[in-house]
Amino acid sequence: MNASPSHRPHPAEWTETQSLLPSAERDLPAGRHQFHKEQMMARIHEDLRTPSRTSATSPVAPVKRSNPFLRRTILLPAAAFALAGAVAGGLALTGGGAGGHGGTTTLATGPALTTRIGVADAKGAPQLLERISLAAADTSEPTPRKGQYIYIASKVADTYIAVDGDNKSEAVSTELHSRQVWKSLDGRDGWLIEAGETSDKGITLQSDTPDGGAYNALAELPTDPDTLLQQIYRESDAVRDPEVPRDQAAFVAIGDLLFESYPPAEVGAALYKAAAKIPGVVAVNDTVDATGRHGIAIARENPVAGERTEWIFDKKTLRFLGERIVVVKATADSPLKVGTVTHTSAITERAVVDATKQVPGQAS
Predict the structure, then answer these.
(1) Quick one: which of 338, 362, 336 has its CA closest to 349?
(2) What does residue 127 show for φ and ψ, rounded to 5 degrees?
(3) Which of 31, 173, 233, 278 could form a disulfide with 159 if both were Cys (CB 3.0 to 4.6 A apart)?
């Protein structure tokens, strides 16, 4: 790790720790993190094995939910995922494969994203989560009505291990790019527009079964923290890799239910209270989301992967800002350096709208 990473005001904290790969190929799309979340949330409600479908009217196919790679911190040990995206060769990856869209997939073309690692405080986590829970419960956000959609706009970027034609591996990152998702309340209908991953018009997100991360499904979750946590453990145990610690899988599952979703206030509060009961959860004094906003974080380290998953909150309002995953410990199985950010995201807007492809403030 460089002793003093350089900082740019946007998109977050980038340092040129390695030279660029002008020509590399990989098999994981840039937005993989959100798609792993969709898989995990679906499993929470026991419909992971039901395939989703793409409408015949969709501009491109298939739906990203078909990505066979599930969330790394739950399902895959560090060694397996560290090289999962590394494919020897010199051609740019295009859509049409697993999780593709028929268009050109965003390539990791920048230097590895790195950051300074904030100080972790185990004693401060319960108190901070209690404050976050109270803030989540005290919300004035509107309750969506039947026929409406949840709209989430975000910025995301990822870092991968890529292998060039000479079989040399290198950590490279995708450019920070925008992502817009519309989901019906039951999750059966929706739309996705993601720079570099879909066309400008986007793709349809349709499923034969309800989405476990959709509003209706979240509304049905128990609001008693102990009961909720038991359910989270039960469902994450059913799909996690044995090498992934049980408590880490539960922590990640809760984060998945908080990011690209719109939980009712009482459910959001219960999820934070449930997280406070997971061993190993810490508070982090300073962290930064994908757009460069500094905040405090609730985090937990996966000792197997040497990575820390951080949920980032505004220091004053305690509003959820985004999430990032940071390498905090070198491991023999991974070439990633300490300080590497393998995923970073920032929620830029969250709202209820009347139709897909409608943005807040726009008439339906």
Answers:
(1) 362
(2) -65, -45
(3) 173
Other C-beta atoms within 10 Å of 201: how many?
Answer: 11
Structure token digits, residue 34? 């959100």
**Could you count the other beta carbons within 10 Å of the beta carbon of residue 6?**
10
> Number of H helices and number of E strands within the chain?
8, 12
Cα distances (Å, whole numbers) of residue 262 to 91, 100, 130, 194, 217: 39, 26, 20, 19, 11
Residue-wise burial string across 141-172, b where 16 or more C-beta atoms lie within 10 A, e elsewhere: eeebeeebbbbbbbbbbbbbbbbbeeeebbbb
Token readout for 198 is: 């879909």
Please count the other Cβ atoms lying within 10 Å of the Cβ belonging to residue 27: 17
User: CA-to-CA distance for 30 and 290, rounded, in angstroms?
Assistant: 14
For 220-255, b/e burial (b = at least 16 CB within 10 A) is ebebebeebbebbbebbeebbbeebbebbbbbbbbb
Closest CA to 280 of 335, 346, 328, 318: 328
Distance of CA 55 to the CA centre of its chain: 25
pTM flag (> 0.85) = no
Question: Tens of pLDDT along 255-289?
Answer: 988 888 999 999 999 999 999 999 999 999 999 99
Write the DSSP symbol of residue 244.
Answer: S
Band (pLDDT 50/70/90 cuts) for residue 166 is: confident
> Packing angle between helix 265-275 and helix 225-237, nearest 10 degrees?
70
| CA distances for 232 relative to 99, 237, 359, angstroms | 26, 8, 32
Is there a contact between 252 and 264 (Cβ–Cβ < 8 Å)? no
Residues 6+ apart with CB under 8 A from 242: none
List all residues 6 or more positions away from 188 whose beta carbon is below 8 Å from its beta carbon: 206, 207, 208, 209, 210, 211
